[in-house]
Design a protein that fits this description.
15 helices; 82% helix
Length: 410
């Protein structure tokens, strides 16, 4: 592997950012719920986070190709610092405009950092080493999600101990320190395109990237439609858990999810081959079973907590492997000279799925009467999205076969 020191620095930036991002999500969610915001009001404020993620990924690929991945990474860290500082300064007088601005900045920051970090891998893995690429993508993505889970727990604990203001001030310090380290190490421009990148290049013309992106949209919508809002509020209100308990439970789930994701290369494709579009079809369709089981057990009021814990464990393991395969395929399919354009377009679809899932999580949960019935309704919507994601992988497999046949031709 080339430029290991630079890769380690980028990964460190992504880790610190992810930890603070997970903590910030729980801090804002539980804090707003505690001061009386309704489910739809809370997710409406999160919409800015997801909406700006869509916009950022659309233009972020162009920015990365035009100015280099170092610049977009530094910009992402800087914006998260501003978002946390704004929330800390306004802790005693939070208003809707302040929350919207902070969430918008955080959404931009998250996707600039993600796009920069994942695109960077393409520049440090030897060309043609698909298995090695899968290994490093899975390691970065899995470790990121484990830290995001730790961030969920950290956010719940910090809210109960030091409070909203001090928690945000601590995150400002950690992010500033990491940014200073990165500025000192990442001095060589990386990821800049050799040719002039025009705005028309923002729309992918590669059918593999397009089908994979469409599938990703519904995949992450299927997770967030019940995981972002309905589940933590159900745990807090219906099961009587504190914010620390709910955050800890979600943290344990996401940490386990991250470890499974990091182990994906050993689970999918064996030791010698990398996963393909066929792998995505199987792993995506498998998500229907745990979702249907959770919904059925909740419908018949069969021990809600054990049903959720066991069902979430199975769902999380399957989803983690599936997400790791997705993340590998987009970097694998991406044009090496303009990798950030393809990755940015793909994660725009990811952010759009999260946006749709976030809105639906609050709207469906509230429309269905909240509580257990609301959670069941969200899971049923999730099943529909999983089916859509699976169907979109079918033309992807055909395009991948065509791509391979053209590659091996003399």
């Amino acid at each position: 592997m080339k430029n290991l020191r630079a890769y380690a620095t980028v990964t460190g930036c992504y880790w610190v950012f992810t930890l603070t991002d997970g903590a910030l999500r729980m801090l804002v969610l539980f804090h707003l719920h505690q001061i009386g915001y309704s489910p739809l009001q809370v997710v409406s404020l999160f919409v800015f986070y997801e909406l700006f993620g869509v916009i950022t990924n659309f233009f972020g690929g162009w920015l990365g190709a035009r100015f280099g991945l170092n610049s977009t990474l530094f910009a992402g860290l800087s914006m998260q610092i501003v978002a946390c500082a704004l929330l800390a300064a306004s802790a005693n007088q939070l208003t809707v405009p302040i929350i919207l601005v902070a969430q918008g900045l955080s959404g931009i920051a998250k996707d600039l950092t993600k796009m920069s970090s994942k695109s960077y891998i393409k520049s440090v893995v030897p060309e043609g080493d698909a298995r090695g690429l899968m290994k490093w993508v899975a390691l970065l993505t899995g470790s990121k999600n484990a830290l995001k889970g730790l961030g969920f727990f950290l956010g719940g604990v910090l809210l109960n101990t030091v409070g909203f203001r001090t928690a945000n001030e601590g995150m400002v310090f950690a992010l500033t320190l990491m940014l200073a380290i990165a500025l000192g190490i990442l001095t060589k421009p990386t990821g800049k395109s050799d040719t002039k990148v025009r705005f028309r290049h923002l729309i992918s013309k590669d059918p593999k990237v397009n089908w994979l992106s469409a599938s990703r949209l519904f995949l992450f919508g299927s997770r967030d439609v019940w995981f972002v809002f309905a589940l933590p509020i159900f745990l807090s209100v219906d099961l009587g858990w504190s914010s620390a308990q709910s955050g800890g439970f979600l943290a344990a789930w996401v940490i386990g999810y991250g470890f499974v994701q990091a182990s994906a290369p050993a689970i999918v494709g064996g030791r010698k081959s990398a996963p393909t579009a066929k792998s995505v079809i199987g792993w995506t369709s498998a998500l229907v079973l745990p979702l249907a089981c959770i919904a059925g057990l909740l419908w018949y009021d069969f021990a809600p907590l054990p049903s959720l814990v066991s069902g979430l464990a199975i769902f999380g393991a399957i989803f983690a492997v599936n997400s790791a395969v997705h993340s590998f395929l987009i970097v694998h399919y991406a044009d090496g000279k303009n990798v950030s354009l393809n990755v940015g377009f793909y994660y725009m679809a990811n952010a759009a799925g999260r946006l749709a899932g976030t809105v639906l999580s609050g709207a469906v949960f509230q429309w269905a009467g909240m509580g257990q019935s609301g959670l069941i309704a969200c899971i049923l919507v999730s099943i529909g999205m999983v089916v859509a994601s699976t169907l979109l992988c079918l033309p992807l497999r055909a395009e991948e076969k065509r791509w391979h046949s053209e590659t091996v031709q003399p």
